[in-house]
Design brief:
mainly alpha; 3 helices; Methane Monooxygenase Hydroxylase, Chain G, domain 1; about 90 residues; single chain
Length: about 90
Amino acid sequence: MANHKSALKRHRQNEKRRLRNRMVKTRVKNVVKAVRQAVEAGDIETARVLLGSATSVLDRAASKKVIHWRAAARKISRLSIAVNKAAAAAQ
């Protein structure tokens, strides 16, 4: 590890950010998985509610630069398509 005071501080900051980013990425994965499971189970109303929260979580992660904004948009788009297809098939 580093010896300089500024390098030690930088190490502490990087560690905090790494843990924060990891928490955000885990949350993103969990909400995406929840939406997909609701779609597979055929629970359209729950899937729509979860899609709203997933959109919020993904947008927040993108705004904090934890994930790329285009990756967030792609995930939101694919989840929306899946929910809409499931809703159309249920009718």
